[in-house]
Amino acid sequence: MDQEPRLDRARVRAHEETGPGFYWLQLELPADYPETLPGQYLNLKTNEHGFKFRRPFGVVEFRREPQAVLIELYYAVVGSGTEAMSRWRPGDDVDCLGPLGVGYSVDKAQPALLVAGGRGAAPLLYLYRLLKESGHASIQFAFGVRDEELLFGMDRLQETDVLLASDNGSVGFHGNILQAIETERPSWLLGQPVIYACGPEALLAATGGFAKRHALQAQVSMEGVYGCGLGLCRGCAVPLVDEERFLMQCLEGPVLDAHRVDWEKVPHV
Amino acid sequence: MSKLSITAGGLKLKNPVLIASGIGGYGAELIPLLDLEAIGGVVTKTIFEEPRPGNPPPRIAETPNGMLNSIGLEGPGIERYEKEKLTRLEGLDTRIVVSIGGYGPEDFAKLAERLDDLDRVDAIELNISCPNVKEGGLNMSTHPNLAEEVVVATRRVTKKPLWAKLTPNVTSISDVGRACLHGGADALSAINTLLGMRIDVDRREPLLARGMGGLSGPAIRPVALAKCFELVRALNCDVVGIGGVEDTSSALEFLVAGCKAIQVGTVVYAEPQVPVDIVAGIEAYMDKHGFTELSQVIGTLKVEETLLIGPKATKAK
Ligand SMILES: Cc1cc2nc3c(=O)[nH]c(=O)nc-3n(C[C@H](O)[C@H](O)[C@H](O)COP(=O)(O)OP(=O)(O)OC[C@H]3O[C@@H](n4cnc5c(N)ncnc54)[C@H](O)[C@@H]3O)c2cc1C
Ligand SMILES: Cc1cc2nc3c(=O)[nH]c(=O)nc-3n(C[C@H](O)[C@H](O)[C@H](O)COP(=O)(O)O)c2cc1C
Ligand code: FES
């Protein structure tokens, strides 16, 4: 994507707590804001004083209005940056660097199997909408969470397309979402679907193994710590199979071909 | 803007604000976000002769008002640097200082000789704060003799201005600085990162794969300033101040302490336009105080000599 990143003041238009410690944020950007696709992200400044890394968030919705572009995010409060965000009010201005990264690259000919883990569902909700609108023949959404309470965005999905799983059995299949697909919807694996995944890196690594076992293509969206989001600091290195160099996920990703990643060398998977 | 112009370490700059090595990539990457022609120059990421993949992840961690990095001097090697990176800066009205690295004096000399032929290279910064395998993993800028050997070897092969970049991780930075000047360096760039560490207490693992890394950002500024002041005072030489510059007033601290120019590092990651803001801010400061040239700011710190701690002025050998 040859888009040039830009710095903008984004205006908070709406902001709601949709679950405990979980927020939906709607930002207003200038009308000429470049098209931002599923898997691409914005890098937001969450601190007013001193130095902190910007915090990256995948885009959940992108809409053009006559006077503005609207971008929506979903985020979980997990630390000081997201804690500060949760205090943003409608009307506040936010320092926004974007659009950044390379998103999902849709294979129109193959069925689409979207695999979401927790808050990782965010960019997949957007991908789902675009696929639906384009009349894509087969779209399935597999959504795994720790607990039912952590489900979100369900109103954006058609029930018949969705498979749920939870670690504690509070909703859907009791166990992980990949096991759920294998046991409850084996038919979803017919016809060579392409997997589009986003979630914790342990799930992405498991998705890589799963895709290999079933001989499927898989695009996964990584979730590392970003120092810059611009390919400058070289901090977000991903180890690759068969290549000595590291890939910078903030620039060449966050969406990567799961088969290129050397999962054993990815920290903490 | 000529009232901001200054010569630092043999290099004439339109203003004293540069981007530090390892921050703006090889320069061109920042163009969409920052007007490189509005600042004095860019120091490009340290380049080695051979490509280097860098260290395994995790390579960075946030720290209070700063960050740790152990990137491991990743880079494409001089060949590709020259063909693919340096050429993208052709025709830009800003200074390009090329940072080079190596494992011993010959490596530095080889690169410097090659860069000496290139018009786009305005000056060379010697990153002697990188590992020296030949000396058993020591760091060349912790040893005055080794540091001097590197400068001497490169001085022999180039007439371009040479800046030696020093590590703060030493007992006496002025001893190393003195050796570099003696070897023929035109300026001392100070400081590189401080050694630091963070621990994930749940996993009981360091946050960086390599355990420790380089600390940078506003958190290190007081240390950087003290080191720069020590160099200026002890050696009365051109110093390029680096470490935690985040805005106009922090840049001015280094200039008032006696640095001829400053480099902005870590904060550029969060706020890419800061170096340009600092240029405007310095000009506004000069207007406010009625200064017409930068020399009226540089080294104007008022001190009571008898009360100061730290090494006193001595002549470079
Ligand atoms: C491309 C991309 C897209 C993303 N999209 C989304 C999204 O749509 N929605 C969303 O909610 N998130 C998203 N994230 C993740 C989000 O960026 C992070 O959750 C956010 O940066 C956290 O910031 P923070 O300051 O709140 O937390 P931090 O304080 O930075 O902590 C982050 C996490 O790391 C842990 N941690 C940090 N330091 C330590 C330590 N020393 N020891 C142990 N644990 C530690 C914390 O417990 C916490 O879980 C995305 C990330 C990427 C890379
Ligand atoms: C991610 C990162 C990479 C760096 N890479 C280099 C490098 O290649 N060569 C070098 O001389 N200094 C490098 N530095 C050090 C900076 O140039 C600078 O000396 C240091 O960060 C202190 O300045 P700051 O606090 O403004 O960042 C790097 C710093 C960071 C944060
Ligand atoms: S976050 Fe800086 S290079 Fe990727």
TrEMBL record, chain A:
InterPro entries: Cyt_c3_hydrogenase_gsu (IPR012165), Dihydroorotate_DH_ele_sf (IPR037117), Dihydroorotate_DH_Fe-S-bd (IPR019480), FAD-bd_FR_type (IPR017927), FNR_nucleotide-bd (IPR039261), PyrK_electron_transfer (IPR050353), Riboflavin_synthase-like_b-brl (IPR017938)
UniProt-listed PROSITE patterns: FAD_FR
Annotated residues for binding of [2Fe-2S] cluster: 228, 233, 236, 250
GO molecular function, one term: 2 iron, 2 sulfur cluster binding
Transmembrane segments: none
Domain of life: Bacteria
Cofactor annotation: [2Fe-2S] cluster; FAD
Binding site for FAD: 81-82
Pfam families, alphabetized: DHODB_Fe-S_bind (PF10418)
Keywords: 2Fe-2S, Electron transport, FAD, Flavoprotein, Iron, Iron-sulfur, Metal-binding, Transport
Note accompanying the cofactor annotation: Binds 1 [2Fe-2S] cluster per subunit. Binds 1 FAD per subunit.
GO-annotated biological processes: pyrimidine nucleotide biosynthetic process
Start and end residues of each FAD-binding FR-type domain: 5-106
Family to which this protein belongs: Belongs to the PyrK family.
UniProt name for this protein: FAD-binding FR-type domain-containing protein
TrEMBL record, chain B:
Binding site for FMN: 21, 45-46, 127, 165, 191, 217, 243-244, 265-266
Class of the enzyme per the UniProt entry, highest EC level: oxidoreductase
InterPro entries: Aldolase_TIM (IPR013785), DHO_dehydrogenase (IPR050074), DHOD_1B (IPR033888), Dihydroorotate_DH_1 (IPR024920), Dihydroorotate_DH_1_2 (IPR012135), Dihydroorotate_DH_cat (IPR005720), Dihydroorotate_DH_I (IPR049622)
Annotated compartments: Cytoplasm
Dihydroorotate dehydrogenase catalytic domain span: 4-286
Gene Ontology terms, MF aspect: dihydroorotate dehydrogenase activity
Keyword presence, Secreted: no
Pathway(s): Pyrimidine metabolism; UMP biosynthesis via de novo pathway
Active site per the UniProt annotation: 130 (nucleophile)
Co-factor remark: Binds 1 FMN per subunit.
Any one of the GO BP annotations: 'de novo' pyrimidine nucleobase biosynthetic process
UniProt EC number: 1.3.-.-
Statement: the UniProt record of this protein carries the keyword Oxidoreductase: yes
Pfam families given in the database record: DHO_dh
UniProt keywords, alphabetically: Cytoplasm, Flavoprotein, FMN, Oxidoreductase, Pyrimidine biosynthesis
Cofactor(s) annotated in UniProt: FMN
PANTHER family: DIHYDROOROTATE DEHYDROGENASE (FUMARATE), DIHYDROOROTATE DEHYDROGENASE (QUINONE), MITOCHONDRIAL-RELATED
Homology family: Belongs to the dihydroorotate dehydrogenase family. Type 1 subfamily.
Entry function: Catalyzes the conversion of dihydroorotate to orotate.
Protein name per the record: Dihydroorotate dehydrogenase
Originating organism: Eiseniibacteriota bacterium
